[in-house]
Amino acid sequence: MAHTHAPGQAHLGPTVAAFDQWADDLLERLRGNPAADRVFSAASHLGDFSVVWHLITAARALGSERGRSDALLFGALIGAESLIVNQGVKRLFRRVRPTSSGDDRYSVRTPSTSSFPSGHASAAAFAATLLCARTPRWTHPLWFAVAGVVALSRAFVRIHHASDVVAGLATGLVLAAIARRIVRW
After folding, report:
1. Of 55, 115, 170, 180, which sits 20 to 30 A from 150 (CA to CA)?
2. Cβ(172)–Cβ(129) below 8 Å
């Protein structure tokens, strides 16, 4: 699949384009596998509006008073993260998505923002980082596994380039570090 860009839109260079093509070729080997299709399609949908992260924090809220207060603060923080990424960072790059509405084999919501960085990946890294700060160490691999599946799902369904996902993960980690300092999370 060729990666093109329109005038006035970000082109991240031949090395990034080669990485994106390499990653898409690898993912194509998984596409069409019924289990992979179900997992990544579901993960992409659950990442819409950070639903998966709100469900996790809501479940944690059932268990303790701290969980309840964390859930409220988490909702505000992930809302701020989304605003910064989708209305701030993405406007700086205006990168064209690899497809306008995702791979035809998968039903995905068509985002209205540009491709770079992936908001799903950013929210995933952000949420996993915050959850790790409030949960036992043994749960940390779980949070980052969920984050990884949600992030990768966006390249899998071809609504993002793989480099968008990598940049989104990095963005989420940075924003989580900043949020943790600001609110002493």
Report:
1. 180
2. yes
Mean pLDDT by 10 residues, the chain (185 residues): 47 87 96 96 95 94 85 94 94 86 82 90 98 95 98 95 97 97 89
What's the pTM value of the predicted model, to 2 decimals? Answer: 0.89
Domain map of the chain by residue range? 14-183
Residues in CB range of 146: below 8 A, 6 or more apart: 52, 56, 124, 128
Contact 156, 102 (CB under 8 A): no
Alpha helices in 31-161 (DSSP H): 34-47, 51-61, 65-84, 90-93, 119-134, 140-156
According to CATH, the superfamily of the domain at 14-183 is Phosphatidic acid phosphatase type 2/haloperoxidase (1.20.144.10)
Our CA angle for 154, 23, 4, nearest 5°, is 80
